[in-house]
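Chapter review: from sequence to fold.
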Amino acid sequence: METTAPHTAPAGSASGPGAPAPERAHAGSALSLHIAIVVFGAILLTLVWGLTGGGRFWPVWVWFAFAVTVAVHAVIRFAVRRRGLELATFLITGLAATAGGIIVAVWLLSGAHGFWPAWPLCAIAAVAGVFLLVQNHHRLPGQRQLAERVDVLERTREGALSVQAAELRRIERDLHDGAQARLVALSMLLGRAEERLKDRPDEAELVRRARDEAGAAIAELRDLARGIAPPVLADRGLAAAVDALGRRSAIPVSVDAHLDRRPIPVVETAAYFVVAESLTNAAKHAQGASARVRIAESAGMLVVEVTDDGPGGADPAGSGLTGLRQRVEALDGRLEIASPPGLGTLVRAELPCVS
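The token string follows.
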């Protein structure tokens, strides 16, 4: 049996993303303790100033020093949680802001005569700006390459799915026009042979069995072809195919399908099977119920909803619904299933409506 060594966070990253929760909590507690000590010290110095007769409020400079230490501590505390360029960006911006705050505070505490901090602030901003520009220049090529790669993957996946859908449609037509047609013709010939063998019961029984087997093969081929895609889907579109599904269903089905354009075949096929599987499940587990199918385009997505008023309690992890989820998610779609006991079932699919 293989064992995997536990991951150890690199030194110096105790509060990083991979650090254990106790270490992150310790780092946060250290900053809180620092702030508490600073506040206590500031209050104590103010009391000392008041007890010694007041005068010029010298504790303000000590307050300033305390604030600087807390600011630097906070920058380092949150910077170590980052990595690579993100760490550098956080450090530069955090330290630049801290330095700018220090300069402005010194100017205010020294009497605010003439805004001399303008020049050092401009210098700090220029250095930070140049750094961020250089960093962004190095980051952009990687982002462009990643975006191009994602675009290529999306196009190749869409192409592969479209080719697969076209091939499945071709197989369905071949089954319907080839093997299925031949089996139908064979069944008819066997029926005629059985009629002519009425006076020879043994031979007629063999022919009858052969005709029954041919009928069973035809039924299996039809089920197989229906599992690929019906011809009406390719010929007349999704609305007509779903309407045909509703008419053939064992339970009453109302269909509300309004589409201004046809989706690409692979999306159309996925939507069809969402409806087909949902109606099959409703007829199997919700006898006496009724179902409603709604298909519409919304915000660039093809939305398919199938609801029934059956007993509910459908298992989203069932093989049929799992297969639907995989089919929908392969197209960057989303499948939602809500089936509270006693409240019916809702199956909702959202598919990219590309035409």
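Two observations follow directly from the output. The first helix runs from residue 21 to 51. Residues 96 and 124 are 6 Å apart (CA to CA).
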